[in-house]
Specification:
Number of strands: 7
Shape: rod-shaped
Radius of gyration: 68 Å
Helix content: 55-70%
Number of helices: 6
Largest sheet: 7 strands, mixed, barrel
Length: 309
Amino acid sequence: MRRSVREALVGFSIVGALAGFAGTMLWLRGVRLGSETWTVTADFANAAGLAARSPVTFRGIMVGTVRSIDVTPMAVKATLEINADDLQLPLPVKAAVSSASLLGGDSQVELVTTGSPLPKNAPKPKSGRCRNSGILCNGATIQGESATSLSAVTASLEQLLNEAQKSNLIPALVESTKQFGITSQDASKFLNTADLAAENVDTLVHQLRAEVARAKPTIENLNRATAEAADAAAHINNLAGAIDNPETVSDLKQTVTNARELTARIDQVGGDIEQLTDDPRFMKGLRSVMIGLGTLFEEVYPAQTGGSK
């Protein structure tokens, strides 16, 4: 009896462990017992490592798995089984295949929505009111996008290298680099020459300023001489205008005539005086008159002449 109880306990323990392990695995894969699932079809141009039972995620949370994959001449159709029956995704929605790393690894499908937030009373995906309500419904088909893989990157890089080789891009780039270096050297020389030219210009400006300062007094004297010459020219113009006046010419002629008559009279008087001074009797009488006048003044004004001493 005791042996049977032990065997029953061991069997129940094994069954419980298996049930717990299975529940844990289902929980890790996002499967909830008792919940209703719904499906969505995603069309991919390249599935890139996607396989059945690959996880389906939304915002990093696992919400389902890939049920099956069908390859057609036009696209790769993947049936996505969503375990969350209350997951409401506003349209538009796309399915993107992503890898665990760039080097590869397990692939998964990520649901991405760019639609506006839904109202609170929005229908569920399996509801009869789901169609034309702006959310992703059960049985809908969405567009898929392939993930970036190392092989795709390598193929793109190889294509770019082939195009560069066909276009002789590398030699042209090397030549352009050389030309750029030469241009840089020429630009440096030009800048150095420009600096020297600027220094020479500054020196020339200082010299010109010094010469202008030295020439400033000469310029002022020239200005003064020019002003005096202008005044003299004005006087000459006035004199020329006066000479051109007939009345002035007539006055000048009359003045010359009067001067001539006065000179003749002076000459005449001078001749008479010369005749008188040549007469001895006139000079003797003039001397006697002067002596008499002197005596008279001494007698009348003795103090002033000093004759009383």
